[in-house]
Protein backbone atom coordinates (compact mmCIF):
# COMPACT_ATOMS: atom_id res chain seq x y z
CA UNK A 1 0.00 0.00 0.00
CA UNK A 2 2.79 2.45 0.86
CA UNK A 3 4.57 1.84 -2.45
CA UNK A 4 1.43 2.94 -4.32
CA UNK A 5 1.53 6.31 -2.51
CA UNK A 6 5.24 6.97 -3.06
CA UNK A 7 6.35 9.88 -5.18
CA UNK A 8 8.22 8.55 -8.22
CA UNK A 9 11.47 10.21 -7.17
CA UNK A 10 11.39 8.52 -3.75
CA UNK A 11 11.21 5.09 -5.36
CA UNK A 12 14.09 5.91 -7.70
CA UNK A 13 16.22 7.00 -4.74
CA UNK A 14 15.67 3.62 -3.08
CA UNK A 15 16.58 1.70 -6.23
CA UNK A 16 19.70 3.69 -7.06
CA UNK A 17 21.08 3.79 -3.51
CA UNK A 18 20.50 0.07 -2.98
CA UNK A 19 22.20 -0.78 -6.29
CA UNK A 20 25.18 1.46 -5.52
CA UNK A 21 25.76 -0.07 -2.09
CA UNK A 22 25.43 -3.61 -3.40
CA UNK A 23 26.87 -6.10 -0.91
CA UNK A 24 28.87 -3.50 1.04
CA UNK A 25 28.48 -3.48 4.81
CA UNK A 26 25.71 -1.13 5.92
CA UNK A 27 27.22 -0.28 9.32
CA UNK A 28 27.62 3.46 9.91
CA UNK A 29 26.75 4.38 6.34
CA UNK A 30 25.36 7.85 5.66
CA UNK A 31 23.06 8.96 2.86
CA UNK A 32 23.15 12.42 1.36
CA UNK A 33 20.33 13.06 -1.09
CA UNK A 34 20.17 15.93 -3.55
CA UNK A 35 16.63 16.58 -4.75
CA UNK A 36 14.38 19.50 -5.66
CA UNK A 37 11.42 20.47 -3.51
CA UNK A 38 9.28 21.15 -6.59
CA UNK A 39 9.03 17.40 -7.18
CA UNK A 40 7.35 16.66 -3.88
CA UNK A 41 5.27 19.85 -3.94
CA UNK A 42 3.61 18.75 -7.15
CA UNK A 43 2.78 15.39 -5.61
CA UNK A 44 1.13 17.11 -2.66
CA UNK A 45 -0.92 19.30 -4.98
CA UNK A 46 -2.28 16.27 -6.81
CA UNK A 47 -3.46 14.54 -3.64
CA UNK A 48 -6.85 16.17 -3.91
CA UNK A 49 -7.33 15.05 -7.51
CA UNK A 50 -7.59 11.35 -6.73
CA UNK A 51 -11.34 11.38 -6.46
CA UNK A 52 -13.22 11.09 -3.21
CA UNK A 53 -10.82 8.56 -1.67
CA UNK A 54 -9.30 10.09 1.48
CA UNK A 55 -5.49 10.18 1.86
CA UNK A 56 -3.97 7.04 3.37
CA UNK A 57 -1.81 6.94 6.48
CA UNK A 58 1.22 6.99 4.17
CA UNK A 59 0.22 10.10 2.19
CA UNK A 60 2.21 12.59 4.27
CA UNK A 61 5.52 10.73 4.42
CA UNK A 62 5.21 9.42 0.86
CA UNK A 63 5.72 12.89 -0.62
CA UNK A 64 7.86 14.61 2.03
CA UNK A 65 11.24 15.68 0.69
CA UNK A 66 12.85 15.29 4.12
CA UNK A 67 11.62 11.71 4.37
CA UNK A 68 13.02 10.64 0.99
CA UNK A 69 16.52 10.15 2.43
CA UNK A 70 15.13 8.81 5.70
CA UNK A 71 13.21 6.11 3.86
CA UNK A 72 16.45 4.92 2.25
CA UNK A 73 18.14 4.73 5.65
CA UNK A 74 15.14 2.86 7.04
CA UNK A 75 14.75 0.40 4.17
CA UNK A 76 18.48 -0.30 3.75
CA UNK A 77 19.44 -0.27 7.44
CA UNK A 78 21.83 2.70 7.20
CA UNK A 79 22.71 4.21 10.58
CA UNK A 80 24.97 7.09 9.56
CA UNK A 81 24.01 10.72 8.85
CA UNK A 82 20.86 11.16 6.77
CA UNK A 83 20.27 14.44 4.92
CA UNK A 84 18.16 15.74 2.05
CA UNK A 85 19.62 18.80 0.35
CA UNK A 86 17.70 21.08 -2.00
CA UNK A 87 19.88 23.68 -3.73
CA UNK A 88 18.05 23.59 -7.06
CA UNK A 89 20.31 22.63 -10.00
CA UNK A 90 23.33 22.03 -7.75
CA UNK A 91 21.57 19.67 -5.31
CA UNK A 92 23.44 16.52 -6.39
CA UNK A 93 26.87 18.18 -6.29
CA UNK A 94 26.16 19.75 -2.90
CA UNK A 95 25.09 16.31 -1.65
CA UNK A 96 28.42 14.95 -2.89
CA UNK A 97 30.22 17.75 -1.04
CA UNK A 98 28.29 16.98 2.16
CA UNK A 99 29.11 13.28 1.84
CA UNK A 100 32.82 14.03 1.33
CA UNK A 101 32.85 16.37 4.32
CA UNK A 102 31.17 13.76 6.52
CA UNK A 103 33.87 11.24 5.62
CA UNK A 104 36.65 13.71 6.36
CA UNK A 105 35.08 14.45 9.73
CA UNK A 106 34.74 10.73 10.56
CA UNK A 107 30.96 11.04 10.79
CA UNK A 108 30.49 7.82 8.82
CA UNK A 109 32.51 4.95 7.36
CA UNK A 110 30.84 5.16 3.96
CA UNK A 111 28.58 7.72 2.35
CA UNK A 112 26.02 7.34 -0.41
CA UNK A 113 25.60 10.56 -2.40
CA UNK A 114 22.39 10.23 -4.39
CA UNK A 115 20.71 12.69 -6.75
CA UNK A 116 17.32 12.56 -8.44
CA UNK A 117 15.33 14.73 -10.82
CA UNK A 118 11.94 13.84 -12.27
CA UNK A 119 10.42 16.09 -14.93
CA UNK A 120 6.84 16.99 -14.08
CA UNK A 121 4.38 19.20 -15.89
CA UNK A 122 3.86 21.74 -13.11
CA UNK A 123 7.55 22.57 -12.76
CA UNK A 124 8.09 22.68 -16.52
CA UNK A 125 5.26 25.18 -16.90
CA UNK A 126 6.70 27.37 -14.15
CA UNK A 127 10.20 27.38 -15.66
CA UNK A 128 8.79 28.10 -19.10
CA UNK A 129 6.85 31.08 -17.76
CA UNK A 130 10.08 32.39 -16.24
CA UNK A 131 11.76 32.26 -19.66
CA UNK A 132 14.28 29.58 -18.64
CA UNK A 133 13.41 26.94 -21.26
CA UNK A 134 14.37 26.91 -24.92
CA UNK A 135 11.53 27.60 -27.34
CA UNK A 136 13.49 25.68 -30.00
CA UNK A 137 13.80 22.62 -27.80
CA UNK A 138 17.60 22.64 -27.97
CA UNK A 139 20.40 23.97 -25.75
CA UNK A 140 22.86 26.37 -27.37
CA UNK A 141 25.21 26.89 -24.45
CA UNK A 142 27.86 29.62 -24.97
CA UNK A 143 26.26 30.37 -28.35
CA UNK A 144 24.57 33.50 -29.68
CA UNK A 145 21.51 31.36 -30.47
CA UNK A 146 21.01 30.47 -26.81
CA UNK A 147 17.41 30.96 -25.70
CA UNK A 148 17.17 28.62 -22.71
CA UNK A 149 17.78 25.02 -21.76
CA UNK A 150 15.96 21.69 -22.14
CA UNK A 151 15.01 19.67 -19.09
CA UNK A 152 16.17 16.14 -18.44
CA UNK A 153 15.52 13.62 -15.70
CA UNK A 154 17.49 10.88 -14.04
CA UNK A 155 18.83 9.35 -10.85
CA UNK A 156 22.33 8.38 -9.79
CA UNK A 157 24.26 7.37 -6.69
CA UNK A 158 27.93 7.36 -5.70
CA UNK A 159 29.33 5.48 -2.72
CA UNK A 160 32.32 7.21 -1.14
CA UNK A 161 34.55 5.67 1.49
CA UNK A 162 37.67 6.59 3.38
CA UNK A 163 40.32 4.26 1.95
CA UNK A 164 43.56 4.36 3.91
CA UNK A 165 42.92 7.94 4.89
CA UNK A 166 42.22 9.16 1.36
CA UNK A 167 38.68 10.27 0.56
CA UNK A 168 37.58 9.43 -2.99
CA UNK A 169 36.94 13.05 -3.97
CA UNK A 170 40.08 15.17 -4.33
CA UNK A 171 38.47 18.35 -3.06
CA UNK A 172 35.09 20.05 -2.77
CA UNK A 173 33.86 23.48 -1.78
CA UNK A 174 30.49 25.24 -1.62
CA UNK A 175 29.47 28.87 -1.44
CA UNK A 176 26.68 31.21 -2.57
CA UNK A 177 26.72 34.05 -5.09
CA UNK A 178 25.55 36.56 -2.52
CA UNK A 179 24.31 39.89 -3.89
CA UNK A 180 24.08 39.82 -7.70
CA UNK A 181 21.99 41.37 -10.47
CA UNK A 182 18.94 39.30 -9.49
CA UNK A 183 18.01 36.33 -7.32
CA UNK A 184 18.94 33.77 -10.01
CA UNK A 185 21.73 35.72 -11.72
CA UNK A 186 25.29 34.33 -11.39
CA UNK A 187 28.08 36.28 -9.72
CA UNK A 188 31.35 35.85 -11.63
CA UNK A 189 33.60 37.15 -8.84
CA UNK A 190 32.02 34.82 -6.30
CA UNK A 191 32.40 31.84 -8.61
CA UNK A 192 36.07 32.63 -9.25
CA UNK A 193 36.72 32.71 -5.49
CA UNK A 194 34.99 29.37 -5.11
CA UNK A 195 37.14 27.69 -7.78
CA UNK A 196 40.31 29.18 -6.28
CA UNK A 197 39.38 27.88 -2.81
CA UNK A 198 39.58 24.22 -3.86
CA UNK A 199 42.99 22.84 -2.97
CA UNK A 200 43.14 20.22 -5.70
CA UNK A 201 44.45 20.10 -9.29
CA UNK A 202 41.94 21.20 -11.93
CA UNK A 203 42.37 19.58 -15.34
CA UNK A 204 38.93 20.26 -16.82
CA UNK A 205 35.76 22.20 -16.10
CA UNK A 206 32.15 21.09 -16.54
CA UNK A 207 29.96 24.17 -16.73
CA UNK A 208 26.38 24.59 -15.59
CA UNK A 209 25.57 25.83 -19.09
CA UNK A 210 22.06 27.23 -18.73
CA UNK A 211 21.94 28.22 -22.38
CA UNK A 212 20.82 31.76 -21.60
CA UNK A 213 22.63 35.04 -22.19
CA UNK A 214 22.57 35.84 -18.47
CA UNK A 215 23.50 32.38 -17.18
CA UNK A 216 26.28 31.69 -19.67
UniProtKB/TrEMBL annotation:
The keyword Transferase is assigned to this record: yes
Keyword entries, A-Z: Phosphopantetheine, Phosphoprotein, Transferase
Any one Gene Ontology BP term: fatty acid biosynthetic process
GO molecular function: 3-oxoacyl-[acyl-carrier-protein] synthase activity; fatty acid synthase activity
Transmembrane regions: none
Gene3D superfamilies: 3.40.47.10
Domain Ketosynthase family 3 (KS3): 1-216
Record flagged with keyword Transferase: yes
CDD domains the record matches: PKS
Name of this chain's protein: Ketosynthase family 3 (KS3) domain-containing protein
Organism of derivation: Aureococcus anophagefferens
